[in-house]
Write a structure and sequence with these properties.
The structure is a homodimer.
Chain A (H helix, E strand, L loop, with lengths): L10 E4 L8 E4 L5 E2 L4 E10 L2 E7 L8 E2 L2 E3 L6 H13 L3 E12 L4 E10 L10 E7 L12 H12 L14
Parallel strand pairs in A: 4-9
Antiparallel strand pairs in A: 1-2, 2-3, 4-5, 4-7, 5-6, 5-10, 8-9
């Protein structure tokens, strides 16, 4: 298997002039590869009381179920990112309702911004990153086969927020 | 003046294998410099009814007033980032209360997460990025000399949220 850090072979860690932290700096050209936390934008998408889940076709957690979510791209808002991911992973057109939760996953430097959303129409199919896409009744969610802790958290918080609006977003469970 | 993009001289834009978007790729070593939105973490810090502001010692907007805020670093939560920035810019120890607002500034790919906070003790002084730090009564805030639109927004939203708790964070004004 190829070394996943092969592309970093020219980089070393040093404190750039005027900075206070070590950064990844290219030995050849001086490029500074700043590492900042990245935003994962996602949505709990509901249709007639059921929740849309995608079974992952990619690593990590290939074969496990998740809500549509992924790295926010430049030029979009978090809500737009969540809607784009729902389209990419499930060819689903969604209407964002509100912000449900913000989770910090510090060991991998991610901030997850999770929205509540509805399907605009009951049409969906697996995108390139999904093996399968389906609507689940609450009691039929495959809890033993969810991809990430934050999927558990957000589904529980979705349930807790039912019937509420205008609330402070949920955060990491303690 | 040096070319600010000198460090990118070895990079060109191409769609990496398996990707769908153009990325900045180093011609020499293949390093992909992913550009994702970055989080600005900041806080409206109150002490005995006054608001803590810093006058910027750095560009952009050198000489203008702002709340303590800056790029979130890896390994921290947004709230920890806001507290660190208050310490770096104003040597202020703060207690984070709650999340006040989330702004998307898409043209510069930033997401601003702004908290409400209190000074733990009335001690502060200019950090290396500040010319001056001071507490302002609401009516004395230098409105014509604020550094960024989001500083206006967050101060107005702070005022609007007074006496409230458990609310959905404010977003960009329309």
């Amino acid at each position: 298997m190829a070394n996943p850090n092969e592309h970093l072979k020219n980089f070393h860690r040093k404190v750039p002039e005027g900075d206070e932290r070590e950064r990844l700096v290219c030995r050849d050209c001086g490029f500074i590869a700043y590492e900042n936390p990245r935003i994962i934008a996602g949505a709990v998408v509901e249709h007639e009381g059921k929740i849309l889940l995608c079974r992952r076709a990619i690593y990590p957690q290939k074969g496990k179920w998740t809500i549509p979510a992924g790295f926010m791209e430049i030029g979009e808002t978090p809500a737009e990112g969540a809607a784009r991911e729902a389209y990419e992973e499930a060819t689903a057109q969604i209407e964002i309702r509100d912000l449900l939760a913000i989770y910090s996953v510090t060991h991998i430097s991610q901030v997850h911004m999770m929205f509540r959303a509805r399907l605009k129409s009951p049409e969906f199919s697996p995108g390139i990153e999904s093996l399968e896409v389906a609507l689940f009744d609450w009691d039929e969610i495959p809890r033993d086969d969810l991809a990430f802790p934050s999927v558990h958290w957000v589904l529980n918080h979705y349930r807790e927020a039912e019937g509420k609006s205008g609330f402070a977003p949920f955060t990491n469970p303690t």
